[in-house]
Amino acid sequence: MADEEPVIAQKAPYAVAVETGKSYWYCTCGKTESQPFCDGAHKGTGFRPVEYKAEQDEVVYFCGCRQSANGVTCDGAHGSL
């Protein structure tokens, strides 16, 4: 399963207001219905969700294309897709 590619859910980030101390489980497969967070759609694949723990109340731009070199946050990689 290591050669699987994630689904490009959208070619733009997801702006999410996060809360200090709260954990958010980012979907790495791109198949979730609750973008950008995991709903278990990765079952049977090699993908696993990644925890993002908010250090402060702020808006975080989670990657929608699953191509970011920044992990779960957008780095603009969608601009070259």
From TrEMBL:
Q: Where is the Iron-binding zinc finger CDGSH type domain?
A: 11-48, 49-80
Mind telling me which InterPro entries this protein's record contains? CISD, FeS-contain_CDGSH-typ, MitoNEET_CISD
Query: Mind listing the UniProt keywords for this protein, alphabetically?
Result: 2Fe-2S, Iron, Iron-sulfur, Metal-binding
One Pfam family in the UniProt entry: zf-CDGSH
Q: Which GO terms describe its cellular component?
A: cytoplasm
Q: Which GO terms describe its molecular function?
A: 2 iron, 2 sulfur cluster binding; metal ion binding
What is the official name of this protein in its record? CDGSH iron-sulfur domain-containing protein
Species for this entry: Candidatus Methylospira mobilis
